[in-house]
Specification:
mainly alpha; about 70% helix; disordered C terminus; Acyl_transf_3_dom
């Protein structure tokens, strides 16, 4: 059965990401470190998939992840080629982004969320070995990313590859997801969990205060502070997550919104920045500055309305990739499925890697 609390976390994470990119409010990154939460939820799902399917789970995860990217690439890459992007073999990275795919001057900003898929791909590919190590040496394996990031931030490891820095920043959250799936976070007694959370939050907060970035105390500019602060947040959010949260569905409209945004999380994430960029000229034309609450509210509403349109047009791709019947608006009533087919669909339908789907870990207990 679904754990609606985890669905709610994904819902809040996606909403926070969109609102942050519209407003630029650094405080939102501190209140809710959304990207680390999404990686932690994804890591939990990945561990559950590997437990069920073994290494074949990697291929299934990629199957769930890439089609929505290909839709974006089919629209934006030709447009970028027509507006100055050179046609080189690197364009093929839009099919499998193990490195940042090339983009022109406007595409680099509109498609900037692609870094998440790049990191996600690497984390999925690394997960079989990482999970094997984590099951045998849990604490040392979990600490490796944080020590790697510390070495980078202190200059001990100079000029690291960009992906390696991202491993230091976010793979620790991914492996906290491993710990959540194994039930380790839930089993931590308060006398252990609370001091760990306080130490991490204090260390992360101190680093953040001592190392403000170009946007002040925006976690996206302070990697080590981001990793430590986010770890404290995840330990509380997942370590004390309720086994169920039926109250999410007490209001039918809100429950449906949580379901829709969960099922369309990847589409929303990939497209939202292009709408933020497209609406930015309104700041000059209409005078909607970042200090104008009404203007910001209108821009947020417009971005979500445009996301509603694009999810209606292309969101069904996530259903097809998940081998579900395509739906215009997810979460509606479905006709009964024959028992034999239900069993087959259950095996394929639960094995996903994109934040926003069914959470297999609920039986054990997602910049």
């Amino acid at each position: 059965m679904r754990n609606r609390f985890l669905d709610l976390l994904r819902f809040l994470a996606i909403v926070r990401v969109v609102v942050y990119h519209v407003t630029g409010w650094a405080s939102l990154t501190l209140l809710f470190p959304a990207m680390s939460v999404m990686f932690a939820l994804a890591g939990s799902l990945m561990a559950a998939s590997l437990d069920r399917s073994g290494p074949t789970a990697v291929g299934r995860r990629l199957r769930r992840l890439l089609p929505s990217l290909w839709v974006v690439a089919a629209i934006f890459v030709p447009a970028m080629l027509l507006t100055g992007l050179p046609l080189t073999p690197k364009v093929l990275l839009w099919l499998f982004p193990v490195a940042d795919p090339p983009a022109n001057y406007w595409g680099a900003l509109a498609l900037s969320p692609i870094w998440y898929l790049r990191d996600y791909l690497w984390f999925v590919l690394a997960s079989p070995i990482a999970l094997w190590l984590f099951r045998r040496f849990p604490l040392p394996t979990l600490l490796v990313p944080y020590f790697l990031l510390l070495a980078i931030e202190l200059g001990i490891y100079a000029n690291p590859h960009g992906v390696l820095r991202e491993f230091g920043l976010y793979f620790g959250a991914w492996m906290l997801g491993f710990a959540h799936q194994a039930g380790m976070l839930r089993r931590l007694a308060n006398r252990v969990l609370i001091p760990i959370v306080l130490v991490l939050a204090a260390a992360g907060g101190a680093w953040i205060l001592a190392h403000p970035g170009p946007r002040g105390y925006d976690l996206n500019d302070i990697p080590l502070g981001n990793a430590l602060w986010s770890a404290a947040f995840i330990l509380v959010a997942l370590g004390r997550a309720p086994a169920a949260a039926a109250w999410v569905d007490r209001n039918a409209l809100f429950g449906r919104a949580v379901t829709v945004l969960n099922r369309r999380a990847l589409t929303v994430y990939l497209w939202h920045m292009s709408f933020v960029v497209a609406l930015t000229p309104l700041v000059d034309v209409v005078g909607w500055s970042h200090q104008d609450p009404l203007g910001l509210a209108i821009r947020i509403v417009l971005v979500f309305l445009l996301l509603g349109v694009v999810t209606a047009l292309f969101g069904w791709v996530e259903d097809v990739a998940a081998r579900r019947p395509p739906e215009l608006i997810p979460g509606g009533r479905r006709p009964p499925v024959p028992a034999g087919r239900r069993h087959a669909e259950g095996r394929s339908g639960d094995d996903h890697g994109v934040p926003g789907q069914r959470d297999p870990t609920s039986q054990v207990n997602v910049k």
